[in-house]
Amino acid sequence: MASVYPRTLGGFTLLLLALAATITPGGGQALITPLDSPLLATKYRGFREIMFNFIGQTGNNKNKFLINLKKGKVQKQFGPEEPFFCNTTGMRSETVPTSVDRLRPGDIDIIGAIGDSLTAGNGAMATNILEVLIENKGLSWSIGGQGTWRQFLTLPNILKEYNPKLYGYPTKDGLSTRKASLFNAAEGGAMSQDIPYQARNLVKRMLSDRKVDINNHWKMITLMIGGNDFCAEICYMATPEKILQYHEKNIVSALRTFRDYLPRTFVNLAASPKVDILARFKNKPQECVSMHVIECPCLLATRFRKQRERFVKLIEDWNMLQMDIAAREEFHRKPDFAVVYQPFTMNLTFPETASGDTDFTYMSLDCFHLSQKGYALASNALWNNMLEPVGGKSMNWEREFTLFRCPSAEMPFLRTPGNS
């Protein structure tokens, strides 16, 4: 065992191994780990609080920032004299639009997100493996609002250039149960089956917040889910293909919740990450080899190697299903609601170094979650997708800041099926 799992990971590896060993075959929506048991839910939440307080916050820690900056894991830093990439003049409508097809970036007043640890921002400023557990919510690619785009490129930090009064983004680390998480309802370890609950939870938060004018404010919600389903569930199902019908039920339920309770809402349904890319990483650090087997056994453990091709096909089918769901008429009947599929991870490749190795400066310490620079890359890709017409959206990402799309006088609107 010592030859496979390095001693440098210490007790945390033993903890993860213990949890991994308890995974038992499930049936899709069934329980697959002890942490899913209702009897342990309260204790698990308490454990997360203890770990969060024990490890401490990292996202706002200047020392952690400098360490990651030195390692090249933080995006390029821009000075205050450097202008934003786009001309923001006229990008907030003089009269609040009533149609989602006439929505400009500056019209977004409220922002939210649901998903798993990638949306929670885990690992963005980690300097050791334990710190990957910390949810750097202020640095999340789709919902973090810490600093500005000059330090941390995120979707809210882009939208703040168009509407400085944007609301809903967290600005610091925090568990989803804390008020500081605001409208980031994502949970580390979440799977598709958790999305209907997260959607209801997010709606309740918005409805109960006095700063939200639920009928008049335009809202943007980003949803990405699937990594944990691919990594830790499909290989324990008697019929893995059934996960597609479960996922369809879950996503449709969440989207209907948004449609029925949130007027004036634009939903980004982001393609699920193609986690099979982990198997193609070049010159992977040994500690990442170990962590990948722990975090993603379905695609990387030896015992499931013969089924890997089958599972990769399921990931592709999952994303095609999501694309189909986003295009369904029921989500485009209301003039003030739209679901738009953003496919920037569908044909995902990862940046490489000059020598041809995978560029791990985009990854956190476990090489599964992203570094701050990696989250900035995802933010840039999502933003580009939002300005690309439906049917003509990029399915891969460029290095951050090399391609940064802007709304124009000719097409100032966020792209929907109705204006594409």
From TrEMBL:
Keyword Transmembrane belongs to the record: yes
This protein's name: Phospholipase B1, membrane-associated
Gene3D superfamilies: SGNH hydrolase
Pfam family, one: Lipase_GDSL
Family: Belongs to the 'GDSL' lipolytic enzyme family. Phospholipase B1 subfamily.
Subcellular locations according to the entry: Apical cell membrane
Reactions that this protein is recorded to catalyse: a 1-acyl-sn-glycero-3-phosphocholine + H2O = sn-glycerol 3-phosphocholine + a fatty acid + H(+); 1-O-hexadecyl-2-(9Z)-octadecenoyl-sn-glycero-3-phosphocholine + H2O = 1-O-hexadecyl-sn-glycero-3-phosphocholine + (9Z)-octadecenoate + H(+); 1,2-dihexadecanoyl-sn-glycero-3-phosphocholine + 2 H2O = sn-glycerol 3-phosphocholine + 2 hexadecanoate + 2 H(+); 1,3-dihexadecanoyl-2-(9Z-octadecenoyl)glycerol + H2O = 1,3-dihexadecanoylglycerol + (9Z)-octadecenoate + H(+)
